[in-house]
Amino acid sequence: MIVAGLNRGPNAKIVRGIDTHPDVPPLPPVPTGGPSLNLSLEGQVQNALNLFLPLKSPAQMPALLALLSASANEVHEALASLHYVHFARFLPSPDGSVLMVITTYDGGLDSYIMDFVGVLGDAFTEILQYIVGAPPLPVKRYAREFTQFIKDHNVSQTGVWSAYPDVTVIDILRGARRL
Asked: Are 125 and 137 spatial neighbours (Cβ–Cβ below 8 Å)?
């Protein structure tokens, strides 16, 4: 028996028989013959971008965070339109000297970066004005240099774990629509 809510008094609700391991139908097979996803070294379809962006001055972090806050809706809509980004976040270092861009996405890094150029090139042009050693701007005009900059500032990862290593965002969205 599980008591729901913090109040265990007369308004508490008793919930019985919660199945924490429901039968989930298997995902349909992935069609063959189309483009395949690049699997990471860990054998997963998800890959990570751990972008380490040093600021020209830690004193600029409040202005950069204000810019990110002002463009949050645009960034959220753009990421949702890509249909292969699992998670994305901007994380300032405690001392304000570095902005980290941390994402989990499906597929290969080059195509991911080029999609960012297409949907968020202007936003990255604004962000990169605060960054030491930024590539030539605007990002959309200098996509090749932006791509190399991202690769050069992407911190590798080891020991990645995923609860669903072979499931893409599209698989997840397809399953959610069935509910």
From this structure: yes
